[in-house]
Amino acid sequence: MAANQPAQGGAVAEEQPRTMGYYLAPMAADIQPAIRHPPVAANNFEIKPDLVTMIQSNSLFHGVSNEPPTEHVQKFIELAESLKINGVPKDALKLRLFPYSLAGNASRWLNNKSALSITLWEDMLNKFITRYFPPSKRRRVAQEDHPL
């Protein structure tokens, strides 16, 4: 049977040519968050919208140069430590909530991290501090606090 010939009298379905954009576009399965959430023992664990609102109204970090990243982390940890959800370890809760504390450039920074590359709260904290409070900024802050 020749190509593009119907099998037993049916109509030929012509395949539409696909553009390079089609082949380069991300597929839904390719879109993964940077954080791999650790399992939790809680049966009915969910993050309520009110909790997200509380985090965003008390501790939202945009990643602009005049925002103190250490202050953001301190506020976020203080808020997260005040929560208790049975069956959910504190670090697992922090990992789940931290993305909600970011906006703008900071949110884009986290979304551009490799898929599922952050597995521990300590990893998240180290990556955040490295990005937003690098050694050059630490030296500058130290010099402002203790001029010679």
**How much helix, percentage-wise, in residues?**
40-55%
Structural class of the helix and strand makeup?
A: mainly alpha
Radius of gyration: 23 Å
Poorly predicted runs are none
Count of β-strands: 0
- The secondary-structure element order is HHHHHHH
The CA-CA distance between the termini, in Å, is 88 Å
Beta-strand percentage?
under 5%
Question: Which of globular, elongated, flat, extended, rod-shaped describes the shape?
Answer: globular
Mean of the pLDDT scores?
Answer: 83
Domain Retrotransposon gag: 96-143
Pfam families: Retrotrans_gag (PF03732)
Organism: Linum trigynum
Protein name: Retrotransposon gag domain-containing protein
Description:
With 148 residues, this protein is mostly helical. It is 45% helix and 0% strand. It has 7 helices and no strands. The longest helix is centred in the middle third of the chain and has 13 residues, at 69-81. The model has no long low-confidence stretch (mean pLDDT 83).
